[in-house]
Amino acid sequence: MTADTNLDLLEQDPVFNLKGGMLTVTIIEVVRLDTGRFAKQLADKKEQAPNFFSDTPVVISLEKLDAHMNLSTLAGLLQICKNHGLLPVALRGSENFRPLAQQSGLVLMPPGRGREKPAEVVAEAPLQAPEPQPSANVPNKIITQPIRSGQQVYAPGGDLVVLAPVSAGSELLADGNIHVYGPLRGRALAGVRGNTEARVFCQSLEAELVSIAGHYKVAEDLRKSLWKQAVHVSLDGDSLKIAAL
Questions:
Q1: Whole domain around residue 219: which residue ranges?
Q2: Could you write out the DSSP letters of every residue in 110-177?
Q3: Calpha distance 37→150 (Å, rounded)
Q4: What is the CATH number of the domain that holds 35?
Q5: Is residue 16 part of a domain?
Q6: What distance in Å separates the CA atoms of residue 84 and residue 161, rounded to the nearest whole number?
Q7: In 31, 137, 220, 222, which residue has its Cα 20 to 30 A from 23's Cα atom?
Q8: Total number of domains constituting the chain
Q9: DSSP H helical ranges for the chain
Q10: Are residues 163 and 94 in the same domain?
Q11: Is the dihedral of CA 229, 232, 179, 153 positive or negative?
Q12: What are phi and psi of 65, to 5 degrees?
């Protein structure tokens, strides 16, 4: 084999692969222009779950904006997002916003199809959790109804217990542990205020992302071990450990 042949083979050797994937991206839907209130309300959200606001990619949706958006105003909103640890990666809206996206260095995504639901905190249900019991003397949150796509449920200060399935596109957050007595198909972030002892328990691991104290694994990694099985996830050093229940 000649040197030229070796060079040709080397040139044909791929240096990257293109892969399709299902990724969960947070959408910030701007409905009115008020940068002061935007900054305050975003700060309030960060106070609830500070580790979630760490290099989180977001899409800025302008579809329901009640006023004209100019470049300087958009730059201000993007800077507020970045100041809180969010990474704006795209605008979403009609073709009218393409020049604005290009001038801001962002991708323009087409309008949504109305399938997203507003993120919400589901009310606490006055029930006792089955075994295993979450930690005592903390304000645990217990949810009895299924968690739908687009919903966000947060348990500040304690554990989150869900006695129903968790759909893809939803998000669970807790300062303590997360218990899911059914399939876990969305995102589960335990120990969001830095509790490295927090754990995630579920009856069927089908999650898009699991995180403990800011350390996480996405679905591509989770599929490698105990996928669709009952597991408990803990933090071992700087990596997540997944064990069968």
A1: 141-244
A2: PPP-S------PPPPP-----SSPPPSSS--EEE-SPBPTT-EEEETTS-EEE-S-B-TT-EEEESS-
A3: 23
A4: 3.30.70.260
A5: no
A6: 28
A7: 31
A8: 2
A9: 3-12, 35-48, 71-83, 98-103, 219-222
A10: no
A11: negative
A12: -65, 135
- pLDDT tops 80 at residue 184: yes
- Domain annotation covers residue 44: yes
CA distance 42 to 201: 29
Nearest to 102 by CA among 59, 71, 69, 72: 71
Say yes or no to pLDDT of 95 above 80: yes
Predicted TM-score (pTM) above 0.70? no
pLDDT grade, residue 241 (50/70/90)? very high
Question: What six digits make up the tokens of 135?
Answer: 């930690």
**Residues 99 and 185 placed together within one structural domain of the fold:** no
Q: Give the pLDDT mean for 42-50.
A: 75
For residue 134, what pLDDT is reported?
A: 46
What integer is the mean pLDDT of 89-118?
Answer: 79
Q: Is 203 helix (H, G, I), strand (E, B) or coil?
A: strand
Query: Max Cα separation, the chain?
Result: 77
Statement to judge: residues 66 and 155 lie in one domain: no
Q: Say if 11 falls within a structural domain.
A: no
Alpha carbon distance 175, 162 (integer Å): 15
Give the angle subtended at the CA of 149 by the CAs of 138 and 141, to the nearest 5°. 10
Q: Residue 91 corresponds to which tokens in the numbers above?
A: 């605008």
Q: What is the per-residue pLDDT for 25?
A: 65
Question: Of 83, 108, 133, at which residue does a domain stop?
Answer: 108
